[in-house]
Amino acid sequence: MSTRILGIDPGLTRCGIGLIELGSSRKVSLVAVDTLRSDPSEELTARVGRIGLQIEDLIVSQRPQVIAIERVFSQQNVSTVMGIAQISGAVLMLAHKHEISVVMYTPTQVKAAVTGSGRAAKDQVGFMVAKILGLAEVPKPADAADSLAIAICHAWRSPAATESANLTNAQKAWLAAERAAKTK
User: Fold this and answer.
1) How many structural domains are present in the chain?
2) pTM of the full structure
3) Which of 21, 39, 57, 70 is the catalytic position?
4) Active site includes 42?
5) Phi-psi region of 28 (alpha: psi -120 to 50; beta: other; left: phi over 0)
6) What percentage of the chain exceeds 90 in pLDDT?
7) Catalytic: 123?
8) For the segment 61-71, what is each residue's pLDDT rounded down to a tens digit?
């Protein structure tokens, strides 16, 4: 049985959306990827509404079982944080409306899951996303690649994925480290 995971890199000007399918043995494959955009000169309600409606169209047509969103802890630019929060709120409302579970991951968690280092650079994340999904090139812009990284992070951290008997040695070591950290 496979699971569809919608990864979202929230943003008001650019919102990355990446849909993957998690199959057996934690194998992931690309279903769709895009970057939704809104014009900063438009009214806020129009911007949030436009992006929200496009996400809802994807939810209705592709039926993901879970939505994974990047959670930002802090950032210097308040307007960027507000845009992230506004789009995240719209996504949470859509998840509630369509009865889809939501999980949030920090950028450090996403980078660690995809590259093995929570301090990886954006180009390293993009490279690994392309490699993991078997893509010829890194999805552009970075928001698109980031949304796929968020979805992959959930795929590899979710209980369904970690219960597989066909884990690689690296995946088994990661799972053991996570379990050990939870018992401390």
Assistant:
1) 1
2) 0.86
3) 70
4) no
5) beta
6) 76
7) no
8) 999 999 999 99
